[in-house]
User: Fold these one by one.
Assistant:
Number 1:
Amino acid sequence: MNRRIFYIAANTFREAVRDRVLYNLIAFALLLSGAAVLVGQISIEIERLVVINLGLTAVSLFGVVIAIFIGIALVSKEIDKRTLYTVLSRPVRRWEFIAGKFFGLSGTLVVNTFFMALGVFGALLYVAHSLHVPDLRVLVALYFIVLQFVIITALALFFSSFSSPLLSAVFTFSLFVIGTFAEDLRGFAAIAHGLTRWLATAAAYLVPNFSALNVINQVAHGEAVGRQLVIYNTAYTLAYTVTVVAGATLIFERRSLK
Amino acid sequence: MAAIEILHLEKTYSVGFWRKRPKRALLPLDLVVEEGEIFGFLGPNGAGKTTTLKILMGLVFPTSGSARILGMELDDPRMKAQIGFLPEQPYFYDYLTARELLRYYGQLSGVNARDLTRKVDTVLERVGLRDAANLQLRKFSKGMLQRAGIAQAILHDPKVVFLDEPMSGLDPMGRREVRNLIEELKGEGKTVFFSTHILADAEALCDRVAIIHLGKLRGVGAVEELTAGVGAQVEVVWAGTIVPAGIRAVGAECHVAGDTVRSVFAADKQDAVLEMLRRERLRLISVTPVRMSLEDYFITQLGDLGEMNLLPRAEGATREGSADKSGVNVSTSVKTGATPYSSAGKS
């Protein structure tokens, strides 16, 4: 990685840490501990299923909220507070700034997910008293959740490069919700006719396909995740993210900072 | 080689939400700043100073025209490694300490990792922030932030330093220190381009100044050149209480104080006035050229109200946008003779 991108990414990570973003981990730990104790008392035979489902859903939701709320301010805050002026007046290209911000927030989310994952495994151990090989499939689900965060970070950054934080939040959250039902949208497009079919197909392929990245239920039931899906999701996330970040860069390259 | 070359630089913004209207922030501007100069960029609020600086820094794109710094294009990273910039009312990452901030900017400017610690310590010492080096910027006062801003602008030893209102927010001691620092930078062979509305600072420091108002350049040159020519006056003092009628007729202002008369008039009337005094056999006490101050020159340039009102209309800009930004202030100051700049200059 280009050194300037690394420095900007490191500063973005430092900002998130010092703004106490990672304090959400405490809330997460409390939630999981409470849930584990509760589940241990009321569930019979399905403790693993409940803890994995609950734990991974919580990881996903916490991460999505952080990705959206930090992501939407990544560029706009720097413009509003004019901290960007002293960065772009240096030998830093605008695309390097966008890339640095993207990697900084993605890195923050990876660290965040790592600690939350420890919490999930801790809760699982508490409830089930032991870990089995199939439990490691949780790692695949966590990997897909991280891929989801990466796409959301790219989308938040994209909207942040030209609109206000409020609008960026609305756009990003809307795409997250629609993307969660992307498979349903594709199904609808398949049975629709005429213009509706054309529009639904376009929308289905334009919005991020988060449903393919959600294997929480499958993993909770102890089912394996195919290698092909891992490769497909990785390639899809890479292509989608590169496209969106490139779009953010193109817009930001032409933007005058009033 | 010129340090800064600005060629027909122009900027028009679109204002309004539904009905976009053009607002010209900068009329075609041509300016050359030589290497090693301290150059003052003067003008009231809304004159176009910050727009010009933002264009030079690549933060805003010009509508037309071009500029070069150290002979290189504005988007050339090699050029950006050789300039320093202090924005107006700077705000920095307040979760960082002053030392961390400077390290970050040093890294972005490409300062060698081995030299970085030494350079950061040196610049912190130079701007008087050594004791606050490990304090988070959110705990800094406005004056301390300004010092941090100056520190980041000079940290990487740039050849050209752009300072937007560098004295803003500083107490008298701080202002003196910044003045000394700017002179030191000149001593090191650097070019300093700074915008200010404190004319006393510009008069004391600058090799040359440019005056800009409503986006238009009103004058460029050394302070002595600008203040010597147009509007030069002479003060003549003679004994007695008699003021010959012809003297008032040439437009002289006369004041009788005790047994002397003090008269001030345009320099080109000097011979006529002295001739009249000789004819009346009045005893001449002194003849003194009255040097125009930079403030007088500034007000003369801004006080051209006819042009001020015509400009926005002729150029398609909004009248109200221009009037409420500077026109009202200027017309008031012209009538009362007190300018919004005079108090700042004396503070």
Note: Residues 79 and 85 of chain A are 8 Å apart (CA to CA).
Number 2:
Amino acid sequence: MRDLLRFWPDIRPRAWRYAVSILLALFSTGIGFLIPVLTGRAVDGPIADHDYRRLVLIALLVVAVGFAESLAQLIRRMITAGMTADWEVLWRRRLFSHLQRLDITHHDEWDSGQMLSRATNDLTQLRRFTAFGLPFLVITPCLVVLGGVILSFIQPVFVVLLVLMSLPTMAGVAWFNSRYKIAARAAQDTMGEVSTSVEESVQGIRVLLAFGRSPWAAQRFRLIVERLRGHELEKVRLDAWLFGAIMLLPQLALVAFAAVGAWGVVTGWATLGQTVAAITLMMYLRMPIEMFGFLLADALMAATAATRYWELMDLEPRITDPKAAEAAAVTSAAASSSDPATGVLEFDRVVFQHEDAETPLLAGVDLRIAPGETLALVGTTGTGKTAMTALVPRLFDVTEGAVRVDGHDVRDLALADLRSRMGVAFEEPILFSASVKENVAMGTQSVDGGTAIDENGVWEALEIAQAADFVRALPDGLDTEVGEQGLSLSGGQRQRIALARAVAGRPRFLVLDDPLSAVDVDTEDRVQNRLRTVLAETTALIVAHRPSTAALADRVAVMDDGRILAVGGHEELLGTSAVYRTLMGVKV
Amino acid sequence: MSDHSDQERRSPHEPDTLPPDIAQRARRLLFDLARPERTGYLVLVVILLLFGIGNAIGPALIAQAMDRGIPAAIDGDTTALVIPLAAFLLVTLATGVADFFGTRLTGTLAQRLMVSLRRRLFDHVQRLGIAYHERSTSGRLVSRQTSDMENIQVFLTGSLQETAIGLAAMGAIAVTLIVMDWRMAIVVFLGFIPLLWVSIVSNRAQRRNQRRTRTAIAKVIVHIVETLGGIRAVQSFRREDVNDRRIVEEDREFRNATAASLRNTAWFAAGTRLIGNLSMAAVLLVGGWLVIGDALQVGMLTAFLLYVRRFYGPLDELVQAFTMYQSASAALEKITAVIDAVPEVVEPTSPTPLPAVRAGGRRVEFDDVAFSYGDGVPVLPRFDLEIPAGQTVALVGMTGAGKSTLVKLLTRFYDPTAGRVLMDGVDLREVADDDLRRAVVMVTQESYQFGGSIADNIRIGRPGATDQQVRDAADAVGLTPFIRRMPDGFDTDVRKRGGRLSSGQRQLVSFARAFLADPDVLVLDEATAHLDIPSERQVQEALATVLEGRTAVIIAHRLSTVEIADRVLVMDDGRLVEDDTPAALIASGGRFAKLHGAWEESRA
């Protein structure tokens, strides 16, 4: 419940509107009670008296009440319609925005399906609850209390019966509450697993097809879906008890009213009119009480959804702007003169260990790359090369030591400032669903998000990456949509656009992780010739597997098991380091 | 990697344009899914009918007790009071029991239907083959399986039962009304005319709104999936603000569609409520008139008024259920569109078995084959190619020469536009999927890891493999030393998308899968791109033994692979331009000789 209350700040600006909608719900239900009163009057009055004029009058009153009731209902729904939809969208935007700024470590810990299901299914559940569940959850007890008050005017004995009926209802509700919460939580969590499983089966479709393992994936999916069914059936089982009991109790109260009322009439302490009135009232109270079961289930699912939502929102981003971000922002690219060591990329006794790992991935790396220098990192797979490249744009933070860019500890620079100083390219070239132009230019916007490079700059970058020719041949040239929702490109093409993105705008630092793995030798050769000119003025860290890439570098650092074994020129290391010779495929 | 590969424009909107008869198709799918549970649904209908009737006769019994029982009790005769009350009690208990079982049965049936619908969608998506997936995005299919399914489930478990109960009660009351007094019944039924009209108008608008909502939320989901999948790039390139703006924009359409739907519900609900109230006034007026004119009894009028109220009572819930129905059917339509998509590569109904494999692997033939993607631009002009059993063929050429396309025909990711691809003389289109996948396995540059342990991921090569076999496969490709360093060895969780494994290690896992699968024909498409040279060498040594007695086609930009090839095919612009042993091609001084020269140079 506390998690639901945390949405209050979002509701507060429109609280009065929301309150009006709840009052209107109360009003429309309450005024509806007048109709039986009026019809009762008609039967006792004009009909008994054969008075046509007053009959018409009362009928007109019923029409008036009818209009008022439906008008109140219309207004209530109209004011909640846009409002609740706005809330869902607001919550999703906030969650999405939060997730985008959450560190990679957290992202790796969570299945994307769990994140997605919180941003969609859970929020839809919450919207439904604010639109229908909550208002009626508020007014139902009001109606029952109101009914009780009216009853007490009719005959206090009936109130006792109403209270007697409420006690088992409340006990049942409490029992239901605890069990249903568990089942709802399990079901919603499993929903996230369904989402993950589907995502995997679609994104890994090539592997599944190549090995003919679709049946295996289907079997995995089946197990999850059947587990989901189990949780849903548990909810159904609880629903059945609740709906059955909650429906039964007011009916039993009716029987009790009739029996006790009859006894009262016979023994003289109640009148027939009182009994009939009490029964009629109870019949009208039945509907909201019956709906209470449904509302309760709805509220519990909403509470679970809220818990799941806040679980994600409460994750503290571990990689954030420094406290004195404003101060550091002054030393941005524009005011480079204030940098203590412009163009220097330095690893100072860097230790890096994944939180749940037993051994560090980087065990004390010291490395200084001078301005304009290109350093190639080589080493067998899994020795921490990619981790080195991830520390520079702060996708992860060092466990010990420091990484310094332009002489600043990367943790002292505002993230936007830090990341605007460098161009990066990953092993897996990720393009966004946007035009080629946008994809290339996106790395170059200034810290405040403005002024990207112009079209010439984009072409220049594409030329360097040897991507200009095929981009020109695309259906809409630079404006061709690529990425998941656009044109599908080959791995080599994607890699070259990603490389163009890294070099666009000539950043002061380049961090490239095996940037040409999917490119043929001939193209690689041409890219490297062009890269040489870029690299002359850029400080670069390049992960290399090929001698040709290593040869681009001014110096090469050989990594093994999280440490740097040797640093030197390509030719020099070929002469001195046996490990390097093996890595470069020189037969020993 | 082929540049031409799948350069079909993927629709940024819907790959499954909804055909005009989608509503019928969706209905057919629904009946199809419900058919095995006929008995269950029949029982449910009976239970709900009983429930409705029980609900309808309740007030009559109470009225009986009031009108006759209490006056009689005052006179000392309690039977007239006790009998209707006892009957009411019994009916109430019976409806309670009916409600209990009705809820359970509805839930059980709904869940059965959901499970079979989910599984059918899942299986079909797997069958749709690569061409469909090149056009679609994972986010969209995720949204079908989550958001759309959720909508259907909400309707089936909640609203469907309410609809049925409401309709049953309304039906029972309608019958009671006719029996009691047909003239008054007609007055009540007159309200049906505007009610029907309102329903039809609202229904039309609602269908449009719900379709809009489903399309809009799918776009939002696609955007979220894409962002979460590429979070490293998102943060590095500071895409956060752009993405924030974009989700606001995409959500605006969802918000507007949802609000439009809610506003429509508002009009609909208010309209039905008004019609109900006006009916009440009409019954009061006409009934009162008749009573005054001595054409109707007062008790009858009272009963009518009570029944009219009850009759229109469930309408609120019905309106709600109606909206849910439209939402669910819009969702079902989207799902139907995927399930109705025709796979481009179809498993034969009466497959030809592949002949028993001989010691030397399998013979592969491309017989007068041509291929173009959907756009009709030929990627591979007509060609013939025979790869004898046991031969290792290296396929080289520039990016975009059509190498990947050629092996996709061999693995039947696509069928040729013309001609046949034969394996040991059998057209691939006649081979059962199981046989084909046992015979041919492909490893690509993209080494996707599924959730689970490293051992689980290797075992994808052969799900029945023993732990020892998994270990041997890892040993063969040189993966074991890395695994030994992991916290839980083979049981280490690979984490989301294998984030905890380096890309080279992931590629080794892919190789281990292929080794474990032990196919007759092995296809490697740039499978060593992410490996460092020592690892690549180890894989190649392992390959040299494994490829003994197997047919293999290897695409590699790194020509080191050629060292183990018996034959080199050079492709250019979709054509095979050179074809000979590596030594002969180097000697002849053609394209391959040039490529090889450049390669040798790059290694120095």
Note: Chain A has 23 helices and ten strands.
Number 3:
Amino acid sequence: MTVDATAEPRPFPFNQADRLDIDPIYQELRASEPMSRIKLPYGEGSAWLATRYEDVRAINADPRLSRSAGRYRDDVPRMTRDDNKRPSIINTDPPDHTRLRRLVAKAFTARRMEALRPRVQEMVRTSIDAMIAQGPPADLVSHLALPLPIGVICELLGVPYEDRDRFREWSDGVLSTTALPPDEIQRCYTDLGTYLAGLVARRREEPTDDLLGTLVAARDEGDKLSEQELVVFGVTLLVAGHETTANQLGNFVYTLLTHPDQLAILERHPDLVPQAVEELLRFIPLGSGGGFPRIATEDIEIAGVTVREGEAVFVSGPSANRDAAAFDDPDTLDVTRTDNPHMAFGHGVHHCLGAQLARLELCEALSAVVTRLPGLRMAAPEDELPWKLGLRVRGLRALPVAWDGIAHD
Amino acid sequence: MTDASQGAADGAWRVAVDRDVCIGSGMCASLDPAHFQLVDHKSSPVSETTEPSDDAVDAAENCPVEAILITRADTGEAVAPVE
């Protein structure tokens, strides 16, 4: 395999994300240039981008590629100006990563999530009841996709639900790439930190047994993490704990509405919802491109190229999920697909902490949508749907839907 | 918290992975490649028994679906994960 070393690195992201489409260039790169040179909006020089399933998987599992080595280095290629100034569990390597993750891993196990299922079902029921009581058309985002994950993470973490309008604005802000200027992104990040520090301080007066209370105890009684790690952990859990699922839920329903044959299968066979969730996770590129750099701590051979020590490597999970070498007919949405080792939650030590929580919420919400809102359809022209732009994640601000009559439970 | 000193006097631990439960996150194989490997995208112990190891405990404690069970070979008592 050859890489033309004289070729100019491609500006990255390649294009502005368009709805949930995957840029066709990924297919070309997987075929002819699986490790390609890209130029990020910030930092110096170029970086590598991996697009094939096996390479993305291997890179995510490779301890020689460090996430923390890029911290506070101004030259490191990155998506936003201050990406390199925000230490969090996401860009921490073992053993510090292991220490931090272990503090919260218990709260997100499959078993704990199963215990949470009745509460999630109740929240979903309340949301759908309100939609039915109001009658069609109704906005699926404001009724279900947004309040469900926010309500769940608020209860888990111990963040007051009444504060959601405030932290929602900051949360969208910190996920901004081009939607806001760098100083505004930084202000949102600072405000979120100040807000979480306030919740931490309150727990020192009145201890709680929620996740934030557990972390405060781990700090004060066990010295298991620093004060900065504690506050940043709260920010990370709050943002990552709802933005992803909230956007994906709208994306899921949008995707089914634009693949009516697949929606019809689920309406007839709601028992297929769990595997449909896996397929939608594979099929939909939630990330708009980019992510965070891994820095090679030594020279590493990947897909026939030598990544030199100190160079930055990015991976495209959405591209990996469309790799024909890993999935039959990868560009076809097939809710009956069974063998589906997709990369939507990443791989290796940074595999999404909230994966089982996301699956729980997505399964319960989608089950309710396909069983309680028969004949579901869009209630606005597709080309008028309000897509978010310039954020790390793709999603809809609103998704007006209509359905037939009254569903009987 | 469990650590590797526990059970050390008695030698080996037993390492088991429930492959029906495993989701192939790769967490264990990345944290502790000496004890866990991915076979057909799912975790498999490198060996069924091991000397006490903090890394193996970390892997079991961090498995997102608790598919890993480490027990004392002599008594069968659970070493990790623990509540």
Note: Chain A is about 45% helix and 10% strand.
Number 4:
Amino acid sequence: MSTPLSPLIHLVDDDEAVRASLGLLIGTVGLRVQAWADPLAFIAQFDRDSIGAIVLDVRMPGISGLTVLEQLVAQRVEQPVIMLTGHGTVEMCRRAFKSGAAEFLEKPVNDEALLEALQNAVRQHVKTRERLGADRQAREHYAQLSEREREVLGLIVSGLTNKEIGRALAVSPRTVETHRANLFAKLEAPSLAQLIRSYAALVDEAAP
Amino acid sequence: MAALWPNGHNALMLHRVRRYRLWILVWCGFTALGALLIARQELAHLREAFETDARIVHRLLSQRVVQHDAVLATLALLQPPAEASSPEQRLPALYPQILSVQRRDRGVPWADSRLQAAEAQSRQWQRPALASADLPGGRYQLVLASDPASFALRMDLHAVVPWNEWPMTPDTSPVRVALEHEGQAFVVQPGRLGGHGWRFAFHKHLAADSQPFDVVALRDVAWHELPWIVMLAWALAVAAALAGLHALLRQRERRQRAEELLRLGQVARLNTLGELAAGMAHEINQPLTAVLANTQAAQRLLGDDPPELDTARLAMAQATEQARRAADVVGRLRRAVTRPDAAAPLHAVVLQDTVRNALHLLAPELERRGVQPELQGVNPPVQVLAEPVGLEQIIHNLLMNALQALEQVPASERRLVLAFSHEGTPGAQGARGVLTLTDTGPGIAPEALPRLFEPFFSTRADGLGLGLSLCETLANRMGASLSADHHSPRGARLRLALPLATA
């Protein structure tokens, strides 16, 4: 997983002048731009791990921007997609949003509208990435727990005290205390509240 | 059509043959039916005439033969003396059919045994009896027994027939009439028998028991006697009627097809226009997008501290280049859609006729909106110099505009007035023929009035804004002028002034 310096915007448009000018404009707010003339090459090669967004022209030779959008969504691409069109119809707009477009803008596009849409998209992508990253980390930690520790975690999440847990599992409160300490260490949870927030979903998922 | 049928031409021919086959079938059906009825009627007519004639013949012959009984009865009653000057010998002079009168006085037998036998029968029956008959020769003998003398008549059938009262012309009549008795026949008139066709027959005893002859009348109607001329006339009449119907249907079909084509043409034009607009939008939007993005990037770069002059310069250079590209697109488009500015030839046109034509074309539209156009100044005709197709298009567009405006007011308030007038003295310099269209629609807003003829200016949400612009272009091309103003209390007035045609 690469950690780029600044977000990367993928710009897909068959028109060279449009690519150059939009690239220049997007560059003025410190975003990096990778321009693609061929939508198929873009789908095949672009860096899916990069943080950023995709700007897609609707009218391109060979393949429609809407089709590209549908393929990206089908491949569970995380980057938000901003559609650009020369003459958008209501129907086209509806289809784009239904397919999962983050924004639908008309050409010629105003700089503020485009840049704001891009910054929103990048922020959204960063959040998504963080949420997914946190999720992944939690899973890794959860996998390290022993069977008994998972049982104890489940009862902690349910709100039971150490005494009640000991009674439920037929062990002494002291043993429960040991499990509890191990478990907090393995899950790297600084507090009970944090522990419950990060792992309640996983416990529910594991429970039959 | 060719696209629907791979082998378009053959299919078309087949279609045509099929269609005509149906027509021919219908013609055959009607002709046959009519001919049958005509033939039946003719046969019924002939039969009736035949039967009437036969009955007359029967009556006439019966009346004649009954006389013979009466003659014999008179002789038996009077018993004239048997002497040389006996009055009965004068009978053949009175009755040509009586060849001779014979008598047998008491005690004297008949010379002929047949007369003897017949007399015995006559005595038994108390009426005259037939003694002998030679029908082919037209002879027979009749006997009446009486006392003291019995009488016999020798008859000539040829003279029995009352030719002066005969209902037919014996030499030419096709009816055969004969008297028949015991296999013998006396042919009264030969007629014409034979041939394939229909036979009428009449068969009846003479109304005299003493002369038991049958009247037999026969009539053969041959095929060639049917009223072929009438049937032929009927067939031709059916053909003419069907041809007329066919022509009528064809004409209606053609008109429907023409209307359909017109409609299709309009749709196709709209589609083409839509495609053109979409293509144009894309072609122009691309450079515009680049121009806008470049200039806005340059602005941002110049606003930076310190300003990034090199990149800003690059952006401006790109913007300039893209602005030129947009201009090129427009230029290319203009060259592609060259307007036929080369003026089409002008003709003398009667303004009223052109308007009537346009109204006729728009009749369904007028009817749908319940608009009854009022024509003012129909006479005298205003003859102007115009390009006929262009003029028709202008009037059509103006009418359509008026109709669309009228749609926005209640049906009861819809009025459309078309007025014709002359401006200036006809023949004088600058004299014009004027058509004024006044509608009672919502009218034209004062702020819209100056822009009315601008291309792409429209007050309708779905309007392209090309209609009036086109009208003005067309009008200017033929030296006419088009103007618009408000009509009080409400509505719009469009005024088209055209140069008059010099007589």
Note: Chain A has a mean pLDDT of 87.
